[in-house]
Hints:
With 156 residues, the chain is α/β, with parallel strands linked by helices. It has helices at 9-17, 31-35, 51-60, 79-94, 108-120, 125-135, 137-149, and strands at 20-23, 40-43, 64-67, 99-102. It has one domain (9-149): Protein tyrosine phosphatase superfamily (Protein-Tyrosine Phosphatase, Chain A, Alpha-Beta Complex).
Amino acid sequence: MTAEPALSPAADDLVATVNLQLGPRPKLKNIPRMAAALDTVVVLLMEKEDAATLVARWEATGVEVLHVDYGIRRDGDHAAIVEATAEAVAARLAAGRRVHIHGAAGLHRTGRVAYASLRRLGLSRDDAIAEIRRIRPVTGDAIATLVAKDSGSVEP
């Protein structure tokens, strides 16, 4: 059995209150079951990825839906999108809401928003990455790579 990564004292209290789930695009048939354990879902899909179908299915469950069309920006800068979404997610997590974030594969878009949200809650770089790895290791690995490159659209 491996030990959980040590978190800074300030972050320990915050992580205990975080109700964050991360994943890939769910199958439509699984959404009602997933929604039963959630307050908010963040859908990071573009319209060309059939976001409307998923958003409608989530909305039918009564869960709060935040749809962010990540889109392909001409300037390639997603920082403003990540910032605004992370602010909304952090506020909900701080209020004790249960939040699920998903894009298509649940890696880069999902990881960026999760990381920025946790940083806004006061976690250090390392603690935010560790928490994401605890929740979903493959997303944690993806965001660790992005943070190491310091792409500018990751760090708050």
